[in-house]
């Protein structure tokens, strides 16, 4: 087991069992595109939720938010002031999902509560993760989940289909396009699996180093990477080539997360992008529909500089804020403190003794899921319900099998050496907070840029006009963003430098 900082007895006491009083609170979190959660008739009656409540002496009122509408639901929640006791959000106190609620005083500073009831959290969670959830006055406002390896997204391929083509594993952009062409000739419906707004279908942005939410130095200025005109035009041209040749679905801009996943698991895709930690679960689910199917992770396509990789994500994928109106904030912090205990790790990783695993001579014998629905249920328990953990991968489960050990090796050898990021700012630039139309999110181009890029891929606008698109962005407030970014960079004011050179 991965080392944890509190004993089972201590964890139970901190979860409230020593006093006998149940901690009741409401909590909202996204479904993570996990079918078990999205299709559940009543998540509050779920057996894993009930077991979690039993272990922590709590009574949870869960509000699930559908993954595809999460940002909109968050903004609406704050607009109508229907805010639960605990709110899950993405990283950063100034991210648009929170709609300025931290600055407006909606949530509690947690410093004193963490000192009293969250010592294990303070010891276990890395300093860098806490910094992302701390304001300029030193107030901690959220309890973060964390990533020890920021390169969690990977390029996937159907290894069985690649073998049939007779082609070697692709390396460069051109190699990947050639494999896709071979897949198309074989009748693969989606040689490359696209998704709306290029989310999880953005590996060629990595090839050309044009991820929108990162900045770079251009002359004396600090500018967003989509202002690299030449590389953005190459990026767009690559997707247009795929569109023109039928290597990506003609309706990719309307493919939502659920269809994206379902088409892949139905064997309709050749290459796609997704978080690497899902490999074993998705491969097993594929085999239910395509018994000869085999998924594999490979290095992402390299661009002109010989580098590539998916977007390096932040240290904090998800974080939990406590409403200042919550009746028992101390009990809530105790609940989250339990999440980093040995008992919690054993429960979330392996489930219930006698049902999911047995113990012989101190060794855990885990009963692996037998079908797609059991895999989805395991994913719900190990990933979605385990609110605070190092979410890079589940070491306890992966260590038990050769496939799991191979996956950990891929993280440590391939993913650790690829991926793109750039200069970032925390707190977010004021210029971005003022105008959503010019603001990128973690996964998406700014709306004003995205609309034109999609039109260019579809052939409705000329790629040669991309400089005009950048000029439009500058006129709508981008100049102020560049000015602010440059000034803050020169003053070293909240600057986060690239992790990969």
Automatic annotation (TrEMBL):
Q: Which residues form a coiled coil?
A: none
The record's PANTHER family line, in alphabetical order, gives: ARABINOSE-BINDING PROTEIN-RELATED (PTHR43649), POLYGALACTURONAN_RHAMNOGALACTURONAN-BINDING PROTEIN YTCQ (PTHR43649:SF33)
The protein's UniProt keywords, in alphabetical order, are: Cell membrane, Lipoprotein, Membrane, Palmitate, Signal
Q: What is the designated name of this protein?
A: Family 1 extracellular solute-binding protein
Give the InterPro entries listed for this entry: Bact_solute-bd_prot1, SBP
Q: Which Pfam families match?
A: SBP_bac_1
Q: Where is this region: Disordered?
A: 1-24
């Amino acid at each position: 087991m991965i080392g944890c900082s509190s004993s089972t007895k201590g964890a139970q006491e901190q979860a409230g069992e020593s006093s006998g009083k149940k901690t009741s609170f409401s909590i909202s979190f996204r479904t993570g595109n996990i079918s078990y959660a999205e299709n559940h008739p009543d998540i509050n009656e779920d057996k894993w939720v009930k077991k979690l409540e039993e272990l922590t002496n709590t009574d949870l009122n869960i509000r699930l938010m559908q993954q595809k509408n999460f940002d909109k639901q968050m903004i609406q929640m704050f607009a109508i002031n229907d805010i639960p006791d605990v709110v899950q959000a993405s990283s950063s106190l100034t991210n648009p999902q929170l709609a300025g609620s931290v600055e407006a005083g909606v949530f509690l500073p947690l410093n004193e509560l963490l000192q009293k009831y969250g010592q294990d959290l303070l010891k276990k969670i890395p300093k860098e993760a806490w910094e992302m959830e701390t304001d300029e006055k030193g107030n901690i406002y959220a309890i973060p989940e964390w990533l020890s390896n920021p390169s969690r997204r990977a390029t996937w391929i159907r290894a069985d289909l690649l073998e049939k083509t007779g082609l070697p594993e692709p390396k460069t952009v051109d190699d990947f396009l050639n494999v896709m062409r071979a897949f198309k000739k074989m009748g693969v419906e989606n040689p490359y699996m696209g998704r709306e707004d290029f989310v999880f279908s953005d590996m060629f942005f990595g090839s050309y180093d044009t991820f929108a939410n990162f900045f770079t130095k251009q002359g004396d200025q600090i500018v967003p990477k989509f202002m690299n005109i030449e590389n953005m035009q190459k990026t767009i041209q690559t997707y247009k080539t795929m569109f023109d040749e039928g290597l990506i679905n003609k309706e990719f801009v309307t493919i939502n997360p659920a269809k994206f996943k379902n088409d892949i698991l139905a064997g309709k895709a050749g290459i796609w992008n997704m978080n690497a930690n899902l490999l074993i679960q998705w491969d097993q689910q594929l085999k239910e529909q395509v018994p000869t199917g085999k998924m594999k992770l490979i290095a992402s396509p390299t661009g002109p500089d010989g580098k590539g990789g998916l977007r390096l994500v932040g240290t904090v994928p998800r974080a939990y804020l406590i409403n200042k109106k919550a009746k028992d904030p101390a009990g809530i912090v105790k609940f989250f403190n339990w999440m980093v205990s040995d008992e919690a790790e054993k429960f979330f990783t392996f489930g219930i003794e006698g049902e999911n695993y047995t113990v012989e001579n101190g060794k855990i014998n885990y009963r692996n899921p037998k079908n797609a629905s059991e895999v989805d249920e395991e994913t719900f328990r190990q990933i979605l319900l385990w609110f605070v953990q190092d979410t890079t991968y589940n070491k306890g489960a992966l260590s038990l099998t050769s496939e799991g050990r191979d996956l950990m090796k891929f993280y440590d050898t391939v993913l650790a050496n690829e991926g793109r990021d750039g200069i970032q700012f925390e707190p977010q630039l004021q210029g971005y907070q003022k105008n959503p139309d010019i603001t990128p999110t973690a996964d998406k181009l700014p709306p004003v840029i995205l609309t034109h890029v999609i039109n260019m891929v579809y052939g409705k606008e000329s790629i040669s006009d991309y400089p005009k698109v950048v000029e439009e962005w500058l006129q709508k407030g981008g100049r102020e963003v560049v000015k602010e970014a440059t000034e803050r960079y020169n003053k070293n004011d909240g600057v986060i430098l690239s992790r990969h050179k």
